[in-house]
Amino acid sequence: MNARITRRTLLLSALPGAAMAQGFAGLGAGSGDFAVPQPGTGFAFPRDHGPHPDFRIEWWYVTANLAMPDGTPCGLQWTLFRSALATGGGAGWATPQAWLGHAAVTTPERHMAAERLARGGIGQAGVTAAPFDAWIDDWRMSGPSLSAVRLQAATPDFAYDLRLATDRPFVPQGEDGYSVKSAEGQASNYYSQPFYAADGTVTLDGETSRVTGRAWLDREWSSSPLARTQTGWDWFSLHLDTGEKVMGFRLRDTGGAPYTSATWITPDGTPTPYGDGAFSAEPLETAQVAGRDIPVRWRVRLSDRGLDAEVAAINDAAWMDLGFPYWEGPVGIGGSHDGIGYLEMTGYD
Amino acid sequence: MTRAALQALLSHWVRAPFQLLTLLIGLATATALWSGVQAINAEARKSYDQAASGIGAGAEAVLTAEGGVAQATFIRLRRAGWPVTPVLEGQIDTPAGPLRLLGLDAFTLPAGELPGDAGGTGTGEGAAPALDFITPPGQLLVAPATEEDLAGTDLPPRVAAQGVPPGTAYADLGIAQRLLDRDDVGRLLVLGPPAIGAPPLADLAPELSSAAPDAQADLGRLTDSFHLNLTAFGLLSFAVGLFIVRGAIGLAFEQRRQMFRTLRALGLSCARLLSLLTAELLILALVAGAMGVALGWLMASLLIPDVAATLRGLYGARVPGALTLSPSWWLSGLAIAVLGTAVAAAASLWRTAAMPLLAPAQPRAWARASESALRLQGAAALACLAVAGIAWGGFDGLVAGFVLLGALLVAAALLLPVALHLVLGGLARTARGPRSEWFWADTRQQLPGLGLALMALLLALSTNIGVGTMVSSFRLTFAGWLDQRLAAELYVRADSDAQGDEIRAYLAPRTRAILPIRSVEADLAGVAGEIVGVADHPTYSENWPLVAAAPDVWPRVNAGRAVLVNEQFARRTGRWPGDTVALPGWDAPIAGVYSDYGNPRPQAMVGLDRFAIMFPDAPDRQFGLRLDPGDVADLRADILDRFGLPPDQVTDQASVKALSLSVFDRTFTVTAALNVLTLGVAGLAILTSLLTIATMRQPQLAPVWALGLTRTRLARLEVLRALMLAGLTFLAAIPVGLVLAWVLLAVINVEAFGWRLPMHLFPLDWLRLLALSALAAALAAALPARRLSRTPPAELLKVFAHER
Q1: Could you point out which of A135, A150, B448, B697 has its C-alpha 20 to 30 Å from the C-alpha of B233?
Q2: Counting beta carbons within 10 angstroms of the beta carbon of residue B408, is it exposed (0 to 12), middle (13 to 18) or buried (19 or more)?
Q3: Contact B196 A155 (CB under 8 A)
Q4: Residues on chain B touching A11 (C-beta within 8 angstroms)
Q5: CA-to-CA distance for A27 and A23, rounded, in angstroms?
C-alpha cells in the first residue's frame, strides 16, 4: 500500500472548486452517503447561514468591488470553504470536517492571494449562525448577524478590515434556492447577498488605505454539483449602475455546449432565475497568465433583460496561485450597461 | 619515440611485479579506507537528513512549554495570525523495540513536509486515505523496513512511505495524542512571519519559550562526533596508506633514473618524459582507485550493521543497516586516489624534472641527514604543539577537541625522527668496536629514508594505544556501572497496571523487596526527556552511581524535595547540585547527578511518592525484585508460568548485563576493525620503505661485505635494525597514545556523549601491540634481508667494478 495520505490529498479533498473543475474523483463520483439538495426546500435564516455538515461541500464567498480615495479600483476576496471527508464522524481532531480559506487583494497593478487550511473540531476554523461568526485562523467574518459583518483577513504581505452592511433581503438563486448545475440535474443550495455596502481599510505594500464600495456574498452547499464531463466554469457577479444585480455562470462541458444559468435581481432584491441557454458568455480576448491562456475580456448577454455587455478584467494577472489554482478578480462592465463586478474562472489548465 | 619510451618505462613494472603490487595495494587500501568511511558517513547522514528535513526543517523557531504546549495555546496563536504547526513527539514500546512517534497536523504543516507529498494529483485519490489518516484508529506512516518490523503488532494500521526515518512513525496529531495518552500538542514550529498586525508572541503566550529549531533537532550535532571520529580514522588510514604509495613510487623512480637519463639522451624531451610518467601514474591511480573503491564498498557494507548498532546504542539514531551509494561517491573515491598519487609522486616528478641530463644517474640512497632539516622538523612539531595548546586552552567543542587530537598526533610524528636521531646518537656513543659503531652510524644514516614509514607506524601504534585505552576504560567503567545500576536480581514488566498489582501481591511474601519502576516522557527544562520514579530503598541509596551529590542526597530525593539528573543533562545544560531543573509543574532542586551511559536523552529521577502525585496516570507495571540469587531461576519460571508473560518481560540481572555488554562490544567493533586495518597499513609502509632502501643500499653494504662481514650476518643485522627501530617507535608511541586516550576520555567524550570517564591503563594490551609491531617490522625486514643474504657475491663486486 502506497502512502497517499498527504497534505495534498487533504487539500484537494477540501477544495470544492478545484475538485469539481478538474473532475476530481472524490466529488465527480457521486454523493455517497451525503445529503443531496432537494428542490422546494427553501431557506430558514439564520440557521442556513451556518454550516450544513451533512453535505459534502459548502462555502461562504465574499467579493468586494472597492475604490481607494484617489479612485483606484480595488477588489477583495474572502472565502471560507467547508469540505467534509465523510458524513457524521468524530469530534476534536478526529473530525472529518476540513476547512479552507482563500483571501486576495487585486488592484490594477497588484494581485496577492493566500490560503489557510484547518480542520474543524479543534476551534481553529468553523461557522456559527447566530450570532454569525465564520473564521479560519485570524481570518474572520463576524457580525451580530450576516446583514452586518466585519470582514478581516491578514497575511504577512497584505491585510484588510471591512464593515459590510445591508438592509436588503438574502436572494435565493435558481428555483427558490435550488440551483441546477447540469442537464443531468446536478444541483446545489444557493443564495446570495449582493447588496452590501462596504467600508474599511486595505493594507498593501506596507500602506493602509481607506476603501469604500460594494460587496457580494454567495452561500452555496451541495454534495455533487457537477456532471463528470464538466471541466470548469466561468462565473460572473455583476453590479449594474442601474441598481440591478446579475449572477450568471457558464459550465464548460467536454460533451458539447456549455450549461448556463443566470439570475436577474432587481434593486429591491426580487430575483428572476433563467435556465440553460438564456444567458451567454463568449470570450473575446485571452491573456497569458501563469503559462495559460485565460479569457480576460468577455461578451455577456441576457437578451430577456436587454443585457449585452463587455466585461473586462481590471487586472489580467488575478491568478490565484494556491493549492489549486484558478482566476478570480474584479471586472469592469461596458456596453448596454455600465458597472463593476467579479469574475471567477476555473479549470484552465 | 613516445611509444618506445612508454614501452621502456612500463617494462620496469614487468621486471618488478612485486613493486607494482605494493603500489597498487597501498593505493587501493588507502582509497578503500577513505571511501569506506565516507560511505558509512554518507549513509548515516542520509538517515539524519531524512529525519531532520522531514519535519520542521524550515521552521524559524520552536516554541515549547513545560508539560507541552496546550492545545488551546496552539489555537490561540493560529487565531492571532501566527503560522504555527504542532509536533507531538513521544515513544511507544513495541515488541520490535521503541518506536519514535511524531504526531503532526497535516492541515497546518507546510506542503511537502509529509512523505509522499510530492506525488501527482491524478484521479483516484479520493478523500478516503486522508480520512483514514485522521480518524481513529488512524494510520502510521513508517519506512518500509519499519513496516516489516512492526508486522503483527496491535498498533494502528501501518502505511509504508519513502522518506520516513527508520524507527519512526508519523501519525495525525489526534491519533498520536491517543497513542501517547496526552492532551497537549507537544511543541509548536513557527513556519514563517506572522500576519500583519498579529500581536507579539510574548503577549499572546508568555508561558512559551522560543528556541532555534536546531536546538531541538540535535541528532545531527550529536552524531557529528561519531562521524568526525570515523572521518578522522579514515583520513589517518589514508595518510598512512599514502606513505606506502610514496615509498613505492619513490622506489620505481629511483630505479629508473638510468633509464630516464638514457631516454633523455636519446632525444626524449623533458616535458614528454614527464607527461609519460604522469600518464603512467594516472593509469595506476585509476586502476588502484577502482580496486580501492570496490574494497571500500565491501568494507562499508561489512561494517555498517555495526555502525548502525553503535548509533542506535549511543544516540538512539536510526540508520538502516544497508548501503546505497551514489555515483558521486564512486567518483570521489577515484578522485581521492588520483589526488593521493599526485601528492605522493610530486617530489619524485619534481626531482626527475630537475635531473641534470649529464649527471651520473646514481640512485641517492639517502638524503644526508642534515641538522638543519631536523631542526626545521622540530620547529614544525613545536608549532603543532602550540596549535594543540591553543585548541585545548582557548576553545570548547568537539571540533576543538579533534584539532587538539590532530595537532598532537602530527607533532608527535614530526618529532619522531628528531627523537630517534638523538637516541641513536646516544646509543652510538656506547658502541664498542668498529662493527657496532658502523651499525649505529648506518642506522642513523638510514633514518631519512625510513622516517616516513616510522612516522606512519607511530601514528598507527599511538592510535591503537589511545583508542584501545579509551574503549577498555569505557568498558571497565561501564561494567562496574552495570553492576551498581542493576542491583535488583529480577526485573518484571506486566502487561497492565492491574496485572502488575496481581503480580506484586503474589510476589510480596516471596521476595525481600519489590521496587516499582515508573517513568513518563516529559520535558526537562523544555527539552524532551524522561522522568523516572525511584523507590525509597537501600538498593538505590547504596548502589546508584552518582558523579556529583549534595549532602543528604537520598533523604531529600526520597522525601520528594529534590531530584537527580543524569550526567548528560548536567553537562549539556550546566545544571549541577544546587541548581534547579524545570519539570512539569515543579522547579525542582538538583541534589545529585548520576552516570547514565548509553542513554542519549536527558533524564531525571524523582522520589516515587512525589512521582505518583505528579503523574498519577503513568503506567505502574514494572518493578525490580530483590531476592536471594539462588532463587532467581525458580521464581522467574514461576512468574512466567503463573501469569503467562512473554519471557522478555521477566529478565534476570545476569542476562540484562550480558546483553548490555554485548551491545557495548558491538558498538566498538568498528573502532577495533579500523584499528587493525591501520596497523596493517603501517606494516606495509615499513615493508615498502625497507624494499626501497634495500636495493639502494648495495653500494653501502658492499664495502662492509668486502671487509669480511658475511651476507647472512649483514641480513641479520638488517632485521635487527628494523626490530630496534620498531621497538623505539613503539616506546615513543606509548606516551603519545596515552595522551591521545586522555584527550578522548576527558575532552572528546564529554563533548560528544556528555560523560567523562576515568582512565585505566592496560599494559598487557601494550605488550600484545609491541609483539604485533615487532612481528610486522620483522616480516617487513625479512624479505629484503633474505634477498640480501642471497645476493650473489658477483653483484656486490659489481659495486666496485662499475662506475654506477
Answers
A1: B448
A2: buried
A3: yes
A4: 111
A5: 7
- Chain B contacts of A119, Cβ < 8 Å? 105, 107, 134
Cis bond upstream, residue B577 (ω within 30): no
Query: Coil, strand or helix: which one is B292?
Result: helix
Using CA atoms, how far apart are residues A288 and A250, in angstroms rounded to an integer?
A: 21
Give contacts of A29 with chain B, Cβ < 8 Å. Answer: 126
- What is the ipTM, given to two decimal places? 0.92
Per the domain annotation, does A2 fall within a domain? no
Contacts of A92 in chain B (CB under 8 A): 174
Burial of A146 (0-12, 13-18, 19+ CB in 10 A): buried
Residue A78 lies in a domain: yes
Measuring CA to CA, how many Å separate B151 from each of B100, B145, B178, B309, B368?
A: 16, 10, 21, 21, 71
Map A218-266 to HEC letters: EEEEECCCCCCCEEEEEEEEEEECCCCEEEEEEEEECCEEEEEEEEEEC
A positions 156-195 inside 8 Å of B (CB): 156-159
Q: Give the residue from A10, A15, A93 with the most B CB atoms within 10 Å of its CB, the best one to mutate.
A: A93
Q: Are B116 and A2 a contacting pair at CB < 8 A?
A: yes
Which residue out of A7, A87, A150 would a mutagenesis test of the B interface target, given it has the greatest number of B Cβ atoms within 10 Å? A7
pLDDT tens digits for chain A (349 residues)? Answer: 233 333 334 444 444 443 333 333 333 344 568 888 999 889 999 999 999 999 988 999 999 999 999 999 999 999 999 988 888 777 889 888 989 999 999 999 999 999 999 999 899 999 999 999 999 999 999 999 999 999 999 999 999 999 999 999 999 999 999 998 887 778 899 999 999 999 999 999 889 999 999 999 999 998 875 677 788 889 999 999 999 999 999 999 888 889 999 999 999 999 999 999 999 999 999 999 988 999 999 999 999 999 999 999 999 999 998 877 899 999 999 999 999 999 999 888 7
> Which residues make Cβ contacts (< 8 Å) with residue B763, sequence separation at least 6?
none
Residues whose CB falls within 8 Å of the CB of residue A253, separated by 6 or more in sequence, listed in order = A182, A227, A229, A230, A231, A259
| 3-class SS shares of chain B: helix, strand, coil, % to 5 | 65, 15, 25
CA-based nearest residue in chain A for residue B176: A93
**B127–A6 CB contact, under 8 Å:** no
Residue A272 placed within a domain: yes
Residue A1 lies inside a defined structural domain of this protein = no
What residues contact residue A279 under an 8 Å CB cut-off, 6+ apart?
A248, A249, A250, A260, A261, A262, A300, A301, A302
> How far is B774 from B726, CA to CA, in rounded Å?
6
- Assign B584 to helix, strand or coil: coil
Q: The CATH number of the domain where A127 resides is what?
A: 2.40.370.10
Question: B709 to each of B200, B713, B800, how far by Cα in Å?
Answer: 92, 6, 16
DSSP lists the bridge partners of residue A67 as A73, A212
H/E stretch holding A203 reads: strand A187-204
Q: Compute the CA torsion angle B779, B780, B783, B786 (nearest 10 deg).
A: -70
From B178's Cα to the closest Cα of chain A, the distance in A is 10
Structural domain total, chain A: 1
Q: How far is B158 from chain A (nearest CA, A)?
A: 9
Question: CA of B195 to nearest chain A CA: how many angstroms apart?
Answer: 4
Phi-psi region of A126 (alpha: psi -120 to 50; beta: other; left: phi over 0): left
Segment holding A319, helix H or strand E:
strand A319-320
Q: Which three cell numbers stand for residue B737?
A: 597514545
Give me the domain span that covers residue A215: 7-345
Contact across the interface for B126 and A90, Cβ inside 8 Å: no
What is the length of chain A? 349
Nearest-angstrom CA–CA distance, B739 and B401: 13
Helix (H) or strand (E) holding A210: strand A207-222
